């Protein structure tokens, strides 16, 4: 048994950590966020050079052919730096959907361009994964889609979409397809772009095995969001500890007050075991696929809860500064906030976990 | 990541399973879940089972043969396989109590050859049961301020003072005890770690009823208790360092993830078996949500433990990850007990005797007992100090000057 990263995986982590500490500094993140851009083009280009876009795409289609564990390792680093680039949908969920659910021809058409980063694909599965709001939902009939999909991950600025219909089928849709309207959704988190898609008899290319792979695609997305939250949470803790070591009140650094130390200790304690859940879920995807959904549900729901606790506690340790825009801590707070809501809130995901174990109808 | 057994470990797992198939019927029918209700002297079948497990290398595996152990190379994965297989077979494991998990490792690390020869074998076979004389009425979290005095008299020490919260002192054969031998030295440097039989003249044990209603711990009074100086373990005046190595073992003991998993499975059964208004409680979405929440937490702790084990196999030093286990594990156990109590509702407040009692009243007893474990072995607050100071590098709270007495 070895519960840990291989040397290669540690190298991947280190190389992303190194690059991101240089290229994804808070000032850069802030510029992208304030400009309302769907992503930072120069960070995207550098990360694509590191192989991020093609991480999970098979080598025969120009990717690195790596697994969900490597994706989770990268996601943790992206979360740590609140990096404004698409990843969860365009580098994990969409490639999986196409490779597992699509034909050889669809793979050849889409994956090589996705692997080099020249094509980005958003994923519209919110109605299945998180539940339908505002009566949203997409129906498929005679090769065309109609209806509305909300919270399309990595949706703004994408060249195409993987879209789930209300009966669980998956479809590939080009961004310039007739009868498709894309409306950007502004969320609290300006580091990643989501949108709403409106379909009116929009031509679509169905993925043959879409129904069989939809749940796997969602599970993989949940694991990657949990990893992103873990990285973001760890960074918030780091900043809180650093701030507490600088800030003086009553003639001493606030890090010497037990009230403050215990807040930090609780954050550290809650964050530590999340990694086991995330790595395990990522590992079972290839090794014990029948265990993936439950493992992903545990990883997502638990890390969401820890993420909320850390987001508020780390902010509180910063006192009034934590509440300011100047400090920038809110970028992490907001990233954790959307990760919690996307692809299923903890309550919804736990209800799924209960069903998976036969506890509920 | 590779969660499959390598060949050697797969074969070992097979051996453990075979042992269990052949010998499971000899195992005493006790569960730590209900055992807590009535702390008592170990019965003969528990000792026999323990002896068999020692002989077969299924507990105290790495104790050298010279001291009556099995003499296996340390292999944390094999220990894990044993724990998991016994758990899966619902069979009581080798004992993990203060004698075996605290005294024995400390003796191995710090004891003289004569002490090892004399104490280790009977201790691992549970022929010698120990209690821990650490806390005093005025030395709890601030253990190093302890005042029980040992003064020299020829080759002996004469011990006077008082210990408190001494679990199992009323059934123990021996005590390992912290005493102050150098009253003028700084508080951490004047302490010695000393062992003596509980029937030494001058020792009075007064059971202290705990909130579960069981006499699990005690006050122990020492009046001119004569103990040979040769009974000091480690160097005289170095007792603090010796004790700290023991506390490290205790904290591992108090955060065992299999213990949480055992509780979780029991809560799951309760949820499926109990009904309210004629409906099984598993159909209640609120209870179900609480259960799944704790299920995720339990799974997190199990996987966390596996990660720590792998790190340890790879020779990585103890880390922040190790420091959080006692805090989180004890809290989780208490939450699991609390969910059990809540599932039972009014039935769950029955205690001692009732035809409607579930599991002998163990749910309330554990709910109380596990709060005791949050406090014992270093309170949750002391754990948070350790995490923040040693794990996160935050400074210690500055010492406060003693307040001046008015008019002095």
Per DSSP, the total helix count of chain B is 13
* Element-level helix/strand string of chain A: HHHHHHEHEEEEEEEHEEHHHHH
Helix/strand-derived category of chain A reads alpha+beta
Anisotropy-based shape of chain B: globular
N-C termini distance of chain B: 67 Å
Q: Which percent band covers the strand fraction of chain A? A: 5-15%
List the chains of the largest interface with their residue counts: A-B, 48 and 53 residues
Strand order of the largest sheet of chain A: 1-4-5-8
**What is the residue-averaged pLDDT of chain A?**
97
Per DSSP E runs of 2 or more residues, the count of β-strands of chain B stands at 10
Major sheet description of chain A? 4 strands, mixed
Please indicate the percent range of residues of chain B in DSSP E strands (runs of 2 or more).
5-15%
Rg of Cα set of chain B: 23 Å
Summarize the structure.
The complex is a heterodimer of chains A (361) and B (408). With 361 residues, chain A is α+β, with helices and mostly antiparallel strands.
């Amino acid at each position: 048994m070895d519960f840990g990263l291989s040397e290669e995986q540690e190298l991947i982590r280190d190389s992303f950590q190194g690059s991101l500490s240089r290229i994804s500094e808070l000032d850069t993140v802030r510029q992208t966020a304030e400009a309302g851009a769907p992503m930072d083009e120069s960070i995207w280009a550098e990360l694509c050079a590191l192989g991020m876009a093609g991480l999970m795409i098979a080598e025969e289609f120009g990717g690195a052919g790596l697994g969900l564990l490597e994706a989770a390792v990268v996601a943790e680093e992206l979360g740590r730096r609140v990096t404004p680039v698409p990843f969860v949908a365009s580098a994990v969920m969409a490639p999986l959907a196409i490779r597992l659910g699509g034909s050889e021809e669809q793979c050849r058409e889409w994956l090589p361009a996705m692997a080099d980063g020249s094509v980005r694909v958003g994923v519209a599965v919110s109605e299945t994964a998180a539940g339908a709001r505002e009566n949203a939902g997409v129906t498929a009939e005679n090769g065309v889609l109609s209806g509305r999909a909300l919270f399309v991950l990595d949706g703004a600025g994408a060249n195409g979409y993987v879209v789930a219909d209300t009966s669980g089928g998956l479809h590939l849709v080009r961004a310039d397809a007739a009868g498709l309207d894309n409306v950007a959704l502004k969320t609290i988190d300006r580091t990643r772009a989501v949108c709403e898609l409106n379909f009116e008899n929009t031509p679509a290319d169905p993925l043959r095995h879409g129904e069989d792979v939809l749940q796997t695609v969602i599970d993989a997305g949940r694991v990657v969001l949990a990893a992103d939250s873990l990285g973001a949470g760890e960074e918030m803790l780091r900043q809180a500890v650093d701030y507490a070591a600088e800030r003086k009140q009553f003639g001493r650094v606030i890090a010497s007050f037990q009230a403050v130390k215990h807040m930090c200790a609780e954050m550290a304690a809650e964050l530590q075991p999340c990694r086991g859940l995330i790595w395990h879920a990522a590992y079972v995807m290839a090794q014990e696929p029948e265990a993936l959904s439950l493992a992903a549900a545990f990883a997502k729901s638990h890390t969401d809860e820890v993420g909320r606790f850390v987001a508020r506690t780390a902010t509180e340790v910063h006192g009034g500064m934590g509440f300011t825009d100047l400090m920038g801590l809110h970028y992490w707070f907001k990233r954790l906030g959307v990760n919690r809501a996307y692809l299923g809130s903890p309550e919804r995901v736990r209800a799924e976990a209960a069903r998976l174990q036969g506890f509920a109808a | 990541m590779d969660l499959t057994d390598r060949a050697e470990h797969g074969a070992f797992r097979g051996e453990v399973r075979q042992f269990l198939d052949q010998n499971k019927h000899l195992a005493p029918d006790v569960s730590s879940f209900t055992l807590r209700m009535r702390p008592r002297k170990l019965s003969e079948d528990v000792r026999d089972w323990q002896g068999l497990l020692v002989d077969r290398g299924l507990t105290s595996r790495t104790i050298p043969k010279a001291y009556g152990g099995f003499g296996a190379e340390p292999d944390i994965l094999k220990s894990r396989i044993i724990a998991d297989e016994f758990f899966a077979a619902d069979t009581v494991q080798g004992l993990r109590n203060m004698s075996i998990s605290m005294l024995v490792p400390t003796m191995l690390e710090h004891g003289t050859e004569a002490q090892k020869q004399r104490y280790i074998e009977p201790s691992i076979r549970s022929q010698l049961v120990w209690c821990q004389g650490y806390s005093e009425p005025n030395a709890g979290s601030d253990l190093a301020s302890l005042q029980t005095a040992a003064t020299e008299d020829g080759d002996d020490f004469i011990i006077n003072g008082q210990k408190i919260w001494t679990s199992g002192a009323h059934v123990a054969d021996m005590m390992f005890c912290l005493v102050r031998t150098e009253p003028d030295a700084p508080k951490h440097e004047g302490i010695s770690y000393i062992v003596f039989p509980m029937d030494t003249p001058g020792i009075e044990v007064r059971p202290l009823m705990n909130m579960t209603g069981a006499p699990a711990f005690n006050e122990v009074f020492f009046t001119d208790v004569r103990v040979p100086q040769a009974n000091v373990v480690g160097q005289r005046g170095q007792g603090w360092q010796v004790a700290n190595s023991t506390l490290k073992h205790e904290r591992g003991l108090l955060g065992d993830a299999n213990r949480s998993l055992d509780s979780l499975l029991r809560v799951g059964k309760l949820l499926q078996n109990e009904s309210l208004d004629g409906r099984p409680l598993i159909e209640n979405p609120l209870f179900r949500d609480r259960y799944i929440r704790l299920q995720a937490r339990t799974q997190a702790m199990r996987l966390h433990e596996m990660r720590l084990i792998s790190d340890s196999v790879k020779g990585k030093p103890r880390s922040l990850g190790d420091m959080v286990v006692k805090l989180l594990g004890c809290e989780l156990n208490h939450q699991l007990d609390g969910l059990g109590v809540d599932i039972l509702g009014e039935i769950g407040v029955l205690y001692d005797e009732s035809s409607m009692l579930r599991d002998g009243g163990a749910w309330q007893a554990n709910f109380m007992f596990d709060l005791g474990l949050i406090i014992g072995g270093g309170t949750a607050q002391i754990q948070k100090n350790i995490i923040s100071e040693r794990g996160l590098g935050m400074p210690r709270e500055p010492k406060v000057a003693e307040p001046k007495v008015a008019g002095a």
